[in-house]
Write a structure and sequence with these properties.
6 helices, mainly alpha, 136 residues
Amino acid sequence: MRPMFSILFMILILPRMDLILYVKGFERFDSIHSIFKNFMTVEALLHNPIVHTFVNMLSDDVPNLHSKGTNSELGHHKTSSPHRVSRKAYNRWFVAYTLIKNPSLRKNYVSEVNVYEEFEITKERLQWKNLISIDF
């Protein structure tokens, strides 16, 4: 009875790559499951939105070397690009939009304005402390 149950179980479960057919400790011998697990890991890494955003930001900063200048041999001419918004303004709006959509990031975000204000306050306090120490 047990061999028949095992054969039936294998027939039903065999098409499922996400289930391990072996007992605990022998998972490394199930090559289909390890291939599926590695495929899912690669799939998760390739479709990570943070990685996509990072790669897009890197590719935006790299100039397109093939479109610059004039190549008379191939007949390519440099065309004028439409007026673009400044990169600094775009980045500020992108940060604002990201912080609005992700409230959990607001706690950890330190803006440049806050850093400069804190620096100025610290600088004033140091000057004030020096004046007090000189007076005494």
